[in-house]
Amino acid sequence: MIEVQNVTKRYGQHVAVDNVSFTVNDGEILGFLGPNGAGKSTTMNIITGYISATEGTVKIDGIDILDQPEEAKKRIGYLPEFPPLYMDMTVSEYLDFVCDIRKVSSAERKQSLERIMDIVKIDDVKGRLIKNLSKGYKQRVGVAQAMIGNPQVLVLDEPTVGLDPRQIIEMRDLIKKLGKSHTIILSSHILPEVSAVCDRIIIINKGKIVAAGTPANLSKHLGGGRLSLRVAAPEKQVMAALEQVPGVARVEPRGTFEPGTIDIVVDPDEEVDIRRPVFNALSHADCPILMMRPLDLSLEEIFMQVTTQESEVS
Amino acid sequence: MIGVYKKELKAYFSTPTGYVFMGFFLLIAGFFFAISNLFPMVANYNAMLSNLTFIFLIVVPILTMRLMAEEMRQKTDVLLLTSPLSVNEMVLGKYFAAVTVFLITLLITCLYPLMMSFFGDIAVWEIIGGYVGFFLLGSTFIAVGLFISSLTDNQVIAAVVTFSVLLLLWVMDALQSVVPTDIISGVVFASALVAAVAIWLYSATRNIYVSLVTAIAGGAAIAGVYIANKDIYTGFIGKALAWFSVLNRYNEFSLGILSLSPIVYYITFSAVFVFLTIRNIEKKRWS
Ligand SMILES: Nc1ncnc2c1ncn2[C@@H]1O[C@H](COP(=O)(O)OP(=O)(O)O)[C@@H](O)[C@H]1O
Ligand SMILES: [Mg+2]
């Protein structure tokens, strides 16, 4: 279990992380979501003991990272934003070195390395120089490095950044697989990314936690039921028809993207499914619906929402 | 520590650094040996070693510039600092790796006196003394270079600064004869030293009281000594420089005298810079 309590990090006047507290339970995959500069990496650097917090404490299984760094660090594997790879080493040499510094006994080394290389699928490149590997392989070597010494906790900072779509899917699958036997903290600035793999999400902005919850909870509370429509009728007529529909909270025209049509975003009252009434109303008003889809909230929109509502979702 | 030590040692020889260091060192040493011992058939090997010490100005930066700077540039320091390894182990591993490369190179140069022994008797103990001094002097400079490498993530800057600092240590000797020797400048110099220590303390601890107390205590000591025996300040700057001068101590070794005090001096000097390196890395994580 990871307990982060009232952690603040100041760089001079600038507050990078502002009084952040949360816990991660054993076996959980926690997503840390926020735009660039939100303080994700800083928080992770503090959790892993790379830098110290200005205030607050971090405990891994009850062990304080500053009081007993060696004990605590044995329990954490860390893949930082920039994978810490030695370009002039081969993959085997590198992993061997990590075994050295993580004090893996030579008796269990061979077997443990084989297991790890099998899981992250880097067996076929183990003799290659790291600088000659593709970005996807480098990232996997980074994950392998974090797994050495069998730490219970894995901290992965933007593990899919810079990967191509196929590599992203492979990395997600790998993280899900690792999640079965590890406690994982994972950061990202892409919402679908974390909602795909995480049990729980913490949204952080300007160093503060602005929302937290399961992916389902978050999207229900923050974006659930929002619809985007394309209708082949004049704006006035559509607006008038939609405003009559019970359960519709707000109607917002978004302009014309196709000749003779209008795009509209409809917000329902909380937890009301308005798709049928909207269809019926527009059909009655003789406004053909060319497209209707639930609006996936982009991270920016969630931010707009959580930062303006200041709501705590749990 | 062994892990980092092995890694650094390997890194010296999987990159050109180790070869450049060794090649350059052996080339210059061989050249010096040839022109001062071999061709003129002069047996004074230690004089040659003593002349050779200037080589540290050039080869030590080559050896040390990478040590910490490259870890920071490649951001691999994260790996080391989030492993169960302590900062002490990491820095010592690096230091000993650099010293080892230097030692290996030095052992190769033992061939030169061996060659001389074919032509006639050599003063074995004197030469061993010279080597011990040469080794200690080099190890001290390596500690200085290691520290400077931890101040930047740019190898070139690390190399240039290391060169400049070693050069400064070098000319300190020459400086002794030109600095003022009167009592007043001695007092001013001592006060400046105390002020520097107080400022350094403040920047390291951010505690104004500690540094104020240090400054006041230092000032009182200077005043006290002045009242008790102001002649101590005559030539004080020169004496201070002489004490600090790394090169001065080398002369004894050069004469083949192995005494404890310069050995302790060099080891202490190295230890201080290794310690400063550790402190500097720790401090960066706390700021
Ligand atoms: N070493 C540093 N010195 C000064 N400011 C920093 C430092 N590291 C990070 N910051 C600042 O802290 C904030 C959070 O950065 P970071 O944790 O890297 O964000 P994220 O990982 O979410 O993109 C940013 O505004 C960044 O500029
Ligand atoms: Mg980041």
Question: What's the layout of helices and strands?
Answer:
The complex is a heterodimer of chains A (314) and B (287).
Chain A: E1 2-11, E2 14-24, E3 29-33, H1 40-47, E4 55-60, E5 63-64, H2 69-74, E6 76-79, H3 91-101, H4 106-120, H5 135-147, E7 153-157, H6 165-179, E8 183-188, H7 191-197, E9 200-205, E10 208-213, H8 215-222, E11 227-231, H9 235-243, E12 248-255, E13 262-268, H10 275-284, E14 289-294, H11 299-309
Parallel strand pairs in A: 3-8, 3-9, 6-7, 7-8
Antiparallel strand pairs in A: 1-2, 1-4, 4-5, 9-10, 11-13, 11-14, 12-13
Chain B: H1 2-14, H2 16-38, H3 45-52, H4 55-64, H5 66-73, H6 77-81, H7 87-109, H8 111-119, H9 124-149, H10 155-175, H11 183-205, H12 208-228, H13 236-244, H14 250-254, H15 260-286
Helix pairs in contact in B: 1-2, 1-7, 2-3, 2-4, 2-7, 3-9, 4-9, 4-10, 7-9, 7-15, 9-10, 9-15, 11-12
N-C termini distance of chain A: 19 Å
Strand order of the largest sheet of chain A: 6-7-8-3-9-10
Tell me the Rg of chain B in angstroms: 21 Å
Backbone CA Rg of chain A = 24 Å
The total of helices of chain B stands at 15
Q: What is bound: which ligands?
A: adenosine-5'-diphosphate, magnesium ion
Helix percentage of chain B: over 70%
Structural class of chain A: alpha/beta
Mean pLDDT of chain B: 88
Shape of chain B: flat
How would a textbook summarize the main sheet of chain A?
6 strands, mixed
What is the overall pLDDT average of chain A?
A: 89
H/E topology pattern of chain A:
EEEHEEHEHHHEHEHEEHEHEEHEH
How would you describe this protein?
Chain A has eleven helices and 14 strands. Chain A is an alpha/beta fold. In chain A, helix 4 packs antiparallel against helix 5. Residues 310-314 of chain A have low confidence and may be disordered. Chain B is mostly helical. Helices cover 80% and strands 0% of the residues of chain B. Chain B contains 15 helices and no strands. In chain B, helix 1 crosses helix 2, helix 1 (2-14) packs across helix 7 (87-109) and helix 3 runs parallel beside helix 9. The longest helix of chain B is centred in the last third of the chain and has 27 residues, at 260-286. The model of chain B has no long low-confidence stretch (mean pLDDT 88). The chains are: A alpha/beta (314), B mainly alpha (287). Chains A and B meet through helix 2 and helix 3 of A and helix 1 and helix 6 of B. The structure holds adenosine-5'-diphosphate and magnesium ion. The site of magnesium ion (MG) has 3 residues of chain A, from helix 1.
